[in-house]
């Protein structure tokens, strides 16, 4: 008799327990919004389908190669550190070049860079390959005098000619500056990150906490997605810095490339992926903390004075965008 009474009772408890394990309707709705407005990052970057192991391996060697700087002190990795848990930056406001002079702008992360619609803060390079050509010949950065001198060093090396031949097997003269940049770009296309927020979008309702979900709601409510939308949460448009309230800077941004008056103070909107790991912030590296960056963006771009509480909520959410392999 007791067994007959308790069996339905236990089954009902079990059913309630399982029901409580599932997401609330509010969380489900938020997952739908996240998928619609942001979307998960693809597993591979555009162009990577043509990248061979030999090409990527060559690109990796070149990425860490200090011979690509005049005094052999700098590599791509010097400013865009990807070793260990580093997030593709040097975490400096502006980066010192081969001879110690600092550049004018903050070095952006190389993580996910191949998804961006253009490269550099002012968009002067169309893609990763075009971007890779610039710093090597930049007099402040790696300071090589010419492509010819770069290729001379590569050809004089005991390993590189053979590695280029393997990476570009169908070319009569594989060691070219174009191919060097292409190999570096292929290596950079491997830096696709995966975050807890992607897991949330893909259906794992437990991957971000209730507090972090509240932070995402605050992020949406503040209007941050007017610039930081799409699966990069940015990286897909230009915006004027100081859109509502002036941001004082002597850097004219996109105007330096186009020479159009209407492009003054326009910069590429940075992706917010890995933003908690890549400070300091803004094109000038002038903002040290993420809290300050969020408050300043709200004020200068949206005309809002965010409370400390709302700022902290948004910052908490932004932490869910970090690559899971690079979080301490």
UniProtKB/TrEMBL annotation:
* Pfam families noted in UniProt: CCP_MauG, Cytochrom_C
Query: Where located?
Result: Periplasm
The protein's UniProt keywords, in alphabetical order, are: Heme, Iron, Metal-binding, Oxidoreductase, Periplasm, Peroxidase, Signal
Q: Which superkingdom?
A: Bacteria
Q: Kindly list the positions annotated as binding heme c 1.
A: 76, 79-80
Q: What is its main location?
A: periplasm
Cofactor annotation:
heme
The cross-references to PROSITE patterns, in alphabetical order and at most eight, read:
CYTC (PS51007)
Please provide one cellular component term from the Gene Ontology annotations of this protein.
periplasmic space
Q: What is this protein called?
A: Cytochrome-c peroxidase
Look up and give the organism this protein is from.
Leptospira kanakyensis
